[in-house]
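debug: dumping io for the single-chain case to check the tokenizer round-trip. Nothing else runs in this session.
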Amino acid sequence: MGVDNFSKGTADHENNHLKERSYWLAWSKIPGIGPVLLRRLEQQFGTLGAAWVSPARELQEVEGLGQQLSVRIQENRSTIDPQKFLEEHLIKNPHFWTPADPDYPRLLLETPNPPPVLYYRGKPNSLESQGITPAIAIVGTRDPSPHGKKWTKRIVTALAKRGFLIVSGMAAGIDTEAHRACLEVGQRTIAVLGTGIDIAYPPRNQGLYRDIVKQGLVVSEYPQGTAPDRPHFPQRNRIIAGLCRAVLVMEAPIKSVALITAYIANEYNRDVYALPDSPDNIKGLGCLSLLSKGAHLITGEEDLLAMLGELPSLDLQPQNSLSQNQQELFTTPPPAIAKLPPNLLKVWQAIPPEPITLDAIVQAMQTSAAEVAGALLQLELLGLITQLPGMRYQRN
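debug: decoded output
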């Protein structure tokens, strides 16, 4: 494969990426088409671009998409030019990801209902997007007791100092305590909003919003100008759970919205932890309920760190476990592969015959995750490797 053909392939891919990005945005604006149906459309037609031009009779074959909704799709897509809509949307909302973008958070993408558009402000980090930096959600009541505040600060400070990324919802109470504790020790934090990406809610958290944007990241599935709306906040909780490998409920009453995050996390096969409290404290009865249903017990910083250290580490591949024959296959490329640019060839050589995780490749390459992720994407587009669930890769 010559360099000219490689460059042409890269340019073609970029054009296809931009087109598919515009279709994710366009589909998200059709009433009645939510994240679940979008995933089904993508699975049925291969791409949302192909789904966009499919006739109504084929659309109706998608589970959950009947005649009435297919008529609505026909009416709406006749008025939308996806590429023009993308260009206009970027004027007011320049920073967002769709599942077609390589920087879309991988853990969130593996959930059943990832947002078709995820807006952001602040400083994106490729290690976080690829799921290499372990993210932990901290949630709880908007009206915490001194006990809840104290332990939230203690736990978050310990986690942040050990390199965990803290994710919360920037609500009053436990969320605010969690974000503040992170910032105070100079660590990044991610706030998931239930409003437009430009609106700090509650209003008294405007200073916190600015601090997070400077030091971390704010994300939302709602574009600029979207005002607070009660149904949005339970909806955003699925994003909090989806971004993280575990959810910690620090203090919550029985009817707390924070418990929704815990239930969603359980559905997503994330670990759920809860801080115990006295039965006399009604603000903590939700945590006791979670513990009675099997949530992990938080007994202190060190025990929690030990338990979190036992979370699956994305199956790191031992570097010296291959036989001599496997090592030769591992490092000796066929003639066509040898024509790859040096940076892509090195990444291809770091992929053994069996599937390997992204962080194992990064560890083997001793380079940045962003560089490796970019090279993997190019190799995948050239048909040389395949991405598997769980951020694993294998040669074709």
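debug: round-trip ok. Residues 118-308 form a domain with the Rossmann fold fold (CATH 3.40.50.450).
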